[in-house]
Amino acid sequence: MDSSQDYVIEMLHITKEFPGIKANDDITLQLRRGEIHALLGENGAGKSTLMSVLFGLYQPEQGEIRKNGQPVVINDPNDATALGIGMVHQHFKLVEVFTVLDNIILGAEATGALGFLRKKEAREKVQALSEKYGLRVDLDAKVEDITVGMQQRVEILKMLYRDNEILIFDEPTAVLTPQEIDELMATMKEFAREGKSILFITHKLNEIMAVSDRVSVLRKGRYVGTVNTADVDKQQLSNMMVGRPVQLEVTKGPSKPGQEILRLDHFCVPSHLHKRNAVNDVSFTVRAGEIVCIAGIDGNGQTELVYGLTGLDRSNGGSATLCGEDITHWSIRHRGKNMSHIPEDRHKHGLVLDFTLEQNMVLQRFREKQFQHAGFIDAGAVRAYTEKLIEQYDVRSGQGPITRARSMSGGNQQKAIIAREVDRDKPLIVAVQPTRGLDVGAIEYIHSQLVAERDRGKAVLLVSLELEEVMSLSDRILVMYEGEIVGELDPKKTNVQELGLYMAGAKRHGKEATA
Fold first, then answer.
1. Helices and strands: H and E segment counts in the chain
2. What is the per-residue pLDDT across 425-446, written as a single tens digit (0 to 9) for each?
3. For the chain, how far is it from start to end, CA to CA, in angstroms?
4. Which CATH number fits domain 247-338+427-515: 3.40.50.300, 3.90.1150.10, 2.20.25.110, 3.40.50.410?
5. Which helix (H) or strand (E) holds 413?
6. What residues contact 194, with CB distance under 8 A and at least 6 apart?
7. pTM, 2 dp
């Protein structure tokens, strides 16, 4: 057994409770100096809570934290920073209207004798760090105008600027493209070589195998065990995480496409960032009984395409037809009655976070007869309906139907949205990043739900940045690049490398793109 001197951080017998739920139940985690230590578990297993305790966002009911063998008290993130602990959160903590540089130095500003900001020094330090680690960012851009991949680099530079030695990454790859994930992995290895110690929260088994030295597994708030990554395979890890064998591959029969459900003809959607259209002259169809996937690197018009289709944004050219009816000028409410939408941003467009789970489940349906009684919402019917969906879709929450959506784990928020949208039983399901930030158990479940809906004759339009998901779930793949469809591929006849070439704009419709 290692002596405590070998550990830079020890979390011993940590217990953290919330109303109705023990998020961490007597968990011990030990981090060695210079290692990449992965923390693996399903959604709601307690990973983010445990890291929030280490970062001072929560106070544990029991247990102690030691640094270099000495007990420490971390009352808030300032204490954590003083101890050299930094954290990149799953949902970034950036001020959108500030510049990149201002976000990096916020709270750790270098000031002169009279209290004035020494911004030139700060800029030079940040620039040196960004060059050293290959974290290229535009320091003068506003955060609201940069991609999520860039925002994450800003969060990492925030930690480095504060000279943190213990780096916590909470689901760092959930919003990144394959290329950005590779870059991040290389950066993490570089940090470890320099003697920094990394705690890496994830549920992506490929990444754990690629980058971590050891893995600690949590399940339903309890510690399952710690293993050396080199001694296990993906199947063993998923069994530890979920407590049962998990189907890592999507099982589905061939599609049997029926009538045309959705048709876009020369569809255009304007951009909010520049004068060009974000979606330009896009035409395709989706038929009943098939899953058509829009693949592409983030920021190539997929979001705007979905906004234009669902009514969150106005299109400015071409037409959209649903089940033979022209919906181009329909209101968002009218469209919502005729299609299901699993949105990209579950916090902004999927849920009202301060509403209860049961209120969220009937957001679009409370006017229906089954939820009405004498002109008022029938609370009993809403509760019974929500309890049925919680049971059917295994949505875990501390207080059942009356849980505030904000207090649920990201994965369970996503399950709730999927339960609501699938149960609405519409001919078209628009699913955008449906498994973003989810663990293998939840991904397996959601994939099986989408395949089941396809087999029931629904048309599914899937938008995904996860190449494995694109390859395994779709019946047809359309690749978007700079607002246009540049290729249509059969997943059975292509591979990730070819798909990557289309996504990067190096290939178009079977031809090499000319520079």
1. 16, 24
2. 899 999 998 987 677 777 888 8
3. 58
4. 3.40.50.300
5. helix 410-423
6. none
7. 0.68
